[in-house]
Amino acid sequence: MHLKRDPDAGSPGSAGRQPFQDVGALVQGFGQLNYVADRALATAVFLAVQLRKPLLIEGHAGLGKTEVAKVLASLLETTLIRLQCYEGLDVNSAVYEWNYQKQLLAIKIEEKSDLTVEEKERHIFSKEFLLERPLLQSILAETASPVLLIDEIDRADEAFEAFLLELLSDFQITVPEMGTIKARHIPYVILTSNSTRELSDALKRRCFYHWIDYPSLEKEMKIVSTHLPSMEADLRSDVVRFVHAVRQLDLAKPPGVAETLDCGQAVMSLGKHRLDEEVVEVTLGCLAKSMEDGQKIKDAGIRELLGNSE
Amino acid sequence: MEQQRAAYSTESVVAFCRFASANGLSGGLHRSLAALRAVKAVGSGDREALRFALRAALCCSKAEWDLFDGLFKAFEETSQRTPEAGPGRQKKTAEGSSQREAPRQHLLGYDAGDTKPETEGKTVVGASARERLATVDFSQVPQNDLARLEVLSLRLLRQMSLRLSRRLKSGYRPGPTDLRRTIRRNLAHGGEPIVLAWRNRRPRRNRLLIFLDVSGSMNAYSIFLLKFAYALEKHFRQVDTFLFSTSVVDVSDALRARRLSGALEKLSQLAAGWSAGTKIGASLHELNRVHSRKLRAGDTIFMILSDGWDTGAPEMLASELRAIRHRVRRVIWLNPLLGLADYEPVTRGMAAALPHIDVFAPAHNLESLLALERHL
């Protein structure tokens, strides 16, 4: 409701028409692009696209948060613009920056020309010298609404979050030398967070929310078979069940789906057909990401974990 | 079917939003509108579609996400019992809140009438340390220490070491060049870069997390230390306080009351397990799991106030404390017993914890707290 513009205004015949009419179609679309989405996630994405509201996805690492944006972009056949947040991210590297070196050179070159000062100024502060960073790019999109992925927003500081709020409500950016730039096509915004810190209420209020949890056994089987189609069914079941047993342990970093896939890939490259104690031990690094976690898995007994899982 | 149809009407969606916000979800007109639009957008789907849409629109954190399904179910049940959702909902809400009140009062479990004037400002002497006191009455807390504590806390926090942020701002010491400002500054020289501007790292204050033991063995000190925490909270937002004995309670909000008496009154509403047993390891574990967002990497100083008498497994205490130390900037353990002349940290818990502590200091009176200045 904070979007005052009609999102499709001024873009007749653009790719703004969504290729999916309801949540079911979206689940299918994601499935065709090798992303196994449950209905809850599909509903959230569907709403975000339909109502043009940002979608905040939280969850542990390695569960496919970032992937949602990538898949959505290819489903909508539009570009994906990604802003990776990090500590110390500032407006200069997120929105725009003038190309100062080039400007200085241009000033030198134009010293001898008989352009007026105004003309020179206009030239130096023209688009040619503007370095577009992700947020500005997303607003300048020419033909269709891009998907803007703001990854790991919890890593940026509160000040940046406040700035983002402004952008997400108006979709316009002011460059003092050029004036205000308003989005022609309002981007679909997806934010992800590993929830290492609490986000501000104001930001959360503006978004739809989805929490990605570890997948159920069946869902993870489906994911593995989608991504590693050449894997034998027995081995797949072994790996997924083992990972599920490992997740029950109290690890500092429980393995995500990405780790399951890594592990499956590793076991396959070793030419094994079933998962046994020996194979697990050599591929333990795929699942346990610290010495302590590895030790915990060993202490729990790999045989027991494999046995438990049957 | 009739029921299901009814569940999609505007009134029932709004009724649900109000029900949800009365029972723990963050509500508001904004959220209700979002929910209505969401329900409209998914169209006339089934019950699941409605649930997913409402959940995406109304939740905004993992805690709310976990709460949602229960609320949704409860609401459905009530609206099924009483077809006209209005009064039924009201009743349910009232019931829910009174049910939540009841165990809290039960957990609180002490008789306010049975008070002893044991908590005077200077009762924190070693000999009384192991006296187990049956009741705690906050109203008996004298206020005379407070002014001194506040002065002290101000001094402490001013001294708190600054940490450099990774974000750059323009500065006066040589560093990476700030081209934007360099150009601006040299306009007078016709754009020739003669005076350079630099970018430096910006200082940022550390955050402080106070983890205060209120178990039986700490009775003599906990009120005094709580006042210390109150004084810190009062002046600085970046202080979080948790109480623990067998479980952990976040009391930061309660301590931010304007007056100490108000803060203590709020505290007595919280079931904090006063004078219960001590499970430091389990409490640290809970802190690590549930409140890990407060342990912000790099800029948090973790201050635990406890005598180290632990009834849990010392291995757990050691491993949890190590996990915390990995996350935070510094671990400070303040032990009131350290003020006793012949105290040796030989209890199993304390011995297990020692390798994972950066600063081990006494905290039995004001002077010992003043000495903290050096470590923050």
List the keywords.
heterodimer; A: 310 residues; Rossmann fold; 16 helices; 9 strands; disordered N terminus; B: 376 residues; alpha/beta; six-stranded mixed sheet; two-stranded antiparallel sheet; 13% strand
> What is the CATH class designation of the largest domain in chain B?
Alpha Beta
Order of SSEs of chain B: HHHHHHHEHEEHEEHHHEHEHEH
Oligomer designation = heterodimer
Beta-sheet strand percentage of chain B? 5-15%
Across the major sheet of chain A, the strand order is 2-5-8-1-9
CATH superfamily of the largest domain in chain B: von Willebrand factor, type A domain
CATH hierarchy, class of the domain at 23-87 and 144-168 and 187-212 in chain A: Alpha Beta
Rg from Cα of chain B: 27 Å
Question: Radius of gyration of chain A over alpha carbons?
Answer: 24 Å
Question: In percent terms, what proportion of residues of chain A is strand?
Answer: 5-15%
Overall description:
The complex is a heterodimer of chains A (310) and B (376). Chain A is 48% helix and 13% strand. With 310 residues, chain A is an alpha/beta fold. Among the domains of chain A are: 116 residues, Rossmann fold (3-Layer(aba) Sandwich), CATH 3.40.50; 92 residues. With 376 residues, chain B is of the alpha/beta class. Chain B folds into three domains: 101 residues, no CATH class; 190 residues, 3-Layer(aba) Sandwich (Rossmann fold); 40 residues, no CATH class. Chain B is 47% helix and 13% strand. In chain B, β7, α14 and β8 form a beta-alpha-beta unit. In chain B, α3 packs antiparallel against α4 and α7 crosses α9. The longest helix of chain B is centred in the first third of the chain and has 24 residues. The N terminus of chain B is likely disordered. The interface between A and B is large, with 41 and 41 residues.
